[in-house]
Design a protein that fits this description.
This protein has 134 residues and is an alpha+beta fold. It is built from 5 helices and 5 strands. The chain has a 5-stranded mixed sheet with strand order 2-1-3-4-5. It is globular. 35% of the residues are buried. The structure holds 2'-deoxyuridine (DUR) and zinc ion. The site of zinc ion has 6 residues, from helix 3.
Length: 134
């Protein structure tokens, strides 16, 4: 599955966004090592802070269903520039995906940029930091 196909999967996921408060729909698609695509949309809540972003929805779905060896993630929103994932999602990506995994950021106009997990969160706090606790 190439970048364009994974972006199309993210666009499909975006349609399911539950966004009664922001009306800002985001979709994500995460490709696993076995070729399975895990889809995620943002899911908001009347208690705003409980909102789950599209990226974390896809990641948590994938882990809970046994997905592994993640190959790439595509993220799309209706933004002027390709969407920029929030800090919480960058941290969860750093936890669960390889540092060199490509992340495709896009918008509905077809603009896209390719980045990588490490570039989204240089110096991430990781399990290695915990290993050195005294
Ligand atoms: O990369 C992003 C950025 C924002 N949101 C969601 C959270 C909230 O529902 C809405 C506005 O921030 O967009 C995502 O899902 N992913
Ligand atoms: Zn986020």
């Amino acid at each position: 599955m190439d970048q364009e196909q994974l972006m199309d999967e993210a666009k499909k996921a975006r349609k399911r966004a539950y966004v009664p408060y922001s009306q800002f729909k985001v979709g994500a698609a995460l490709l696993s090592g076995t070729g399975v695509v895990y889809h995620g949309c943002n899911v908001e809540n009347a208690s705003y802070g409980l909102t789950n972003c599209a990226e974390r929805t896809a990641l948590f779905k994938a882990i809970s269903e046994g997905g592994k060896d993640f190959q790439a993630m595509a993220i799309v929103a209706d933004t002027a520039e390709p969407v920029s994932p929030c800090g919480a999602c960058r941290q969860v990506l750093a936890e669960l995906c390889p540092g060199d995994m490509p992340v495709y950021l896009g918008n509905l106009d077809g603009d896209s940029v390719v980045t990588a997990v490490n570039d989204l969160l240089p110096g991430a706090f990781t399990k290695e930091d915990l290993d050195h606790a005294e």
